[in-house]
Specification:
This protein is an all-alpha fold. It is built from seven helices and no strands. Helix 3 runs parallel beside helix 6 (139-156) and helix 3 (73-91) packs antiparallel against helix 7.
Length: 195
C-alpha cells in the first residue's frame, strides 16, 4: 500500500485542477481537497487488507464510462461528480458511522462536500453551454449501478470490518480511475497539467 499511495496521490491531484474542456476552473484549494480525500481514505484503514482476502469481490467498476472519446462537455465533470456523490452517500450512513473513526469520517464528509460543490458549479456552467446529449447509457447510470452493487455487498456482509475494508480499497481504485480520466481529458484539450 505504501508504494501505491504516491501514485494515487499524483493521479488524484491531476483530477481536480483547471478543466479546459468546460472552460471552468476549480478553486485553487481543489488540489488540496483531493489530496486530503485520498489521504483520509488511506488513514481510515482499520485492519490489514490481507486479513480480508476471502471477502474480496469484483465490483465490476464500469471502466467504459471513463472512455474519454465519447464524453461531451457536461459529462466530463459528471463522472467525477457522480463518483464523489456516491462515495459521500456510502460514508454518510449509520453503518459507516459505526465502522469508522468519527473524526476521520467527519473530515472525509467535509472534503467530499466541498469537492461536490466545486464540481457542481462546473456542471451547472457546462449544462448552460450545452444542448441535450443523448447516449445509449448514461455514464452516471452505470456508476449508480456500480455503487448499488457495493451497497448490496455491504448489506450481504452485514457491514463487517472486512467488508468495509474491501470497499475502502475499491474506492481508492475508483478514484484513481477518475483521476486518470481527468488527466486524459486535460491532455486532449491541451489544458494545464500538474507535474
Amino acid at each position: 500500500m505504501a508504494h501505491l499511495l504516491p501514485l494515487l496521490t499524483a493521479l488524484l491531484l491531476c483530477s481536480y485542477g483547471p478543466v479546459g474542456s468546460l472552460g471552468c476552473e476549480l478553486p485553487e484549494n481543489s488540489v488540496q481537497l483531493s489530496r486530503m480525500t485520498l489521504g483520509l481514505l488511506v488513514q481510515m484503514r482499520t485492519i490489514s487488507p490481507g486479513l480480508c482476502l476471502r471477502h474480496r469481490r469484483d465490483f465490476r467498476f464500469p471502466r467504459d464510462v471513463l472512455n474519454a472519446s465519447h464524453f461531451h462537455k457536461t459529462q466530463d465533470m459528471s463522472v467525477p461528480h457522480e463518483m464523489l456523490q456516491q462515495i459521500y452517500n456510502l460514508f454518510h450512513t449509520q453503518q459507516a458511522s459505526a465502522a469508522w473513526n468519527k473524526t476521520l469520517l467527519a473530515e472525509l464528509h467535509t472534503a467530499l462536500q466541498q469537492q461536490l460543490q466545486d464540481l457542481n458549479a462546473c456542471l451547472v456552467q457546462g449544462r448552460a453551454q450545452q444542448d441535450s446529449v443523448l447516449t445509449t447509457e448514461s455514464p452516471t447510470l452505470a456508476l449508480r449501478r456500480y455503487f448499488q452493487g457495493i451497497h448490496v455487498y455491504l448489506k450481504e456482509k452485514r457491514h463487517s470490518d472486512c467488508a468495509w475494508e474491501i470497499v475502502r480499497m475499491e474506492l481508492l481504485r475508483a478514484l484513481a480511475s477518475a483521476a486518470d480520466l481527468q488527466e486524459r481529458l486535460r491532455s486532449k484539450d491541451g489544458g494545464p497539467r500538474i507535474s
